[in-house]
Amino acid sequence: MADPGTQEVVLEDLEATTRLTGRKHILSLLVEDKPGVLARIAGLFSRRGFNIDTLAVGPTEDPEVSRITLTLDGAVHPIDQVTKQLHKLVNVIKIRDMDPDATVAREMALFRVQATVEGRAEIMQFAEIFAADIIDVSRRTLTIEVTGTQDKIDAFERMIRPHGLIEMARTGEVAISRSRPDQ
Amino acid sequence: MRAADALCEALKAEGVEHVFGIPGGASLPIYDALYDADLNHIQVRHEQCGGHAAEGYAKASGKVGVAFATSGPGATNLVTAIADAMMDSVPTVFVTGQVRTELIGTDGFQEADVTGITMPVVKHSFLVTDPRQIPRYVHEAFHIAATGRPGPVLVDIPQDLSRAEIDYEPPEGKPDLPGYKPPTEGNIKQIRLAAKALANARRPVIYGGGGIVNANAAEEFRELCASDRIPVTLTVMGLGAFPAPHDQWLGMLGMHGTRTANYAMDEADLIVAVGARFDDRITGKLSEFAPRAKFIHIDVDPAEISKNVPAHIPIVGDARDVLPKLTREYRALKPDSARLEEWWGRIQEWQANHPLRYEDSRDTEIKPQFMIEAMYEATGGDAIITSDVGQHQMWAAQYYHFNRPRQWINSGGLGTMGFGLPAAIGAKVARPDDEVVCLAGDGSLIMVCQELATAAYHDIPVKVFLMNNGHFGMVRQWQELFWAERYKAVEMGPSPDWPKLAEAFGWTGMQCSDKGELRDAMKTALDADGPVLLDVHVTKDENCFPMIPAGAAARDMVG
Description:
Number of strands of chain B: 18
Distance between the termini of chain B: 64 Å
Oligomer: heterodimer
Largest interface: A-B, 34 and 37 residues
Largest sheet of chain A: 5 strands, antiparallel
Helix content of chain B: 25-40%
């Protein structure tokens, strides 16, 4: 783009930024580890009518700072408005709208599945294909731990659901940016 | 020293001279510290009004207003004022007492989770968990309240912690908060782009809001307006930032703005928004708002930009920094003012065809608009005017021509009834040498009439000009126009004898119902010592026009 200081301005050509991106966004927030921070963030989302798809909270390398990883649908919410509102919270130190091509994101999920004599082998086969671990077993059930992208976990769920999904717990995605190869 | 004494020292270090409040059990240590502190405490009669008085103080002075309340009901009574300060970006610090630390979470006597309750309506809040935090949080609270986009900050202090012994040294410099870096300077490339767009516009309008007043940038705003013959309009919060009357002045815009201002927005090709937030009372039906316009949006709060109306040229920064640069860049382009001739022709046509007008009575009856005109004349147009919300507020905005910032103090965003009297008390404390008049509605005044005691007790000579129409007038107007005249709960019924009520509180009470006597009555009230309430009986069923019906477009104004 030319330096706006040198170009002519024709009013008709000015465009406002489009607001909806139409894709999933992962926001990575660094926040001060202070009481009420999560309530402030949750409150902001409900007050402004933003929907959080997933949310994961945990410590970082700095004991005074926590990381909150949020996923949101950019087809429904203007992400820049979400990040700007989040920035207004004094306890929010930094926000990154993660670039999908330069981000490694993972989620962990636990599934308890009905495992009949006939079905058990197939479930174990799926677990192997998905590089999942069987972490608990009973006569009629298997409990499986899967880690991976949201899509992978969704796919695993689709595979085992017909066997009888008793219970599922998912952490929501956490994400970190990829290192450049020369780093 | 005790942490409560450190609290007072910290307030003084922030330049605080006056605080508004009511004591209670959980704030006993704080009030014990106030006994010795060199701070003027104004004892209000309801915490909500303490909050509004702090707002009035802040709006009149530009300094941070401070209000105190005790825990539980004291703190919850503050909530309306906190929300009001949030909506109108008023720099305020609220200090609440909290129950003792070991009682928090037990539903103790007078316990309320005030940080939780107020979370959606504060700029920031602090719950003290260590007595050493108290003075530090106070300094941080002032920094946050006053900088960037101003707003309310709450500091909630458990009773046991305010009694603890701590060391306190006033800090040097401003606090460093890792998550709080308000923008100041605007991006110069964006400013240049804006200047060029403005120079190319043939139907531009400058639309200013309360942000200009908050940024103390009225002079810089006027410079920008003076750089060419660009038409200027202001929101109800911005009134006074540009002097009225003036040959570039279109009047206020929005729901009860002038037809000229609203039509100009409707037909503009470029709108320069300065410290304004495209509230629904401005835009009317959003999809039909200013359909031909491109938008330059200057605001210190990045989240306001493109929130309601997408901006073509966003400029994030303090108006006081951005406006002089924009003026300089614009002047350097030497734009040809002749390009605006056609636009002014159109505007002057609207001005001639649609001036603000009302039908005056043919007898002695006082029309509410006449009352505002009389008030303008009696005060020489120079008084600080506070108001509540409703018809009287809109008539004042239309007919009292504000010519300087901080002259017009009202509740714009939250629209809080009863704001005017406590705000007038706060404004008079801030500006004792200025005439301060509360233009009150009778529906509003009765909500806060206990504050007549505050003004009498502390000898604060405010004047209340009561526009008494015996109704919740604006709601009555809506029931008449949009709800088939099914009037419900809008008539005030047997109102008090206001002059007697005023006298009972130690005020001077006056009454007027003859328009021939009104100006003199107002002058008498203004010249009298001490607080005076002048009860003015006006037409009961006058409607405030013109108006954009809710959800309609600007060009569909009625009345």
